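User: Could you check the structure of this?
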Amino acid sequence: MDPAKICILVLDRSPKSAHSIGQTLKSIGYQVSVTTHRSEAVTLANEKPFNVVVKSFDPDTVDAIALMDRIRAITPDTQFIFISDKATIQIAVDAIRKGAYDYLSKPINPAQLIESVRKALDFQALIAEDEQIKVRLRRRSDPDIFAGNSGLMAEIDRLIRQIATRM
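Assistant: Sure, the predicted structure tokens are below.
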């Protein structure tokens, strides 16, 4: 996976922490956008898809989960890594149950962050591959509804399949 093609969003209320995390990820070659504001994060997510979002997480608020849901409405395969200085095992388990890929404690260990991002990207690739396999298997098991394989018949078949996926 070419790091230059990977887009990561870092969102932390602390500018110093956001900058530090961003620099760590940029050092690997990732395209990194850094913000300290939730509204700007949503704007950025509307402008381009992010592979991973690294987000500060306060277990006393629901904004991290709401943001995760909002960004996944735009790009469903975006992986989230939550970070917090209020780390407990229960909070980490809850964050992952709510859909985060990983949960890291502050202060952030750069090697641990890089490894977590790498694993989140691997997981994202597996999900995409699984979907491609499902589509190929579905195509193989679909009955041929047309006799012949002319260009016109292939185009009719393609249009029917395209319309069927919208229903």
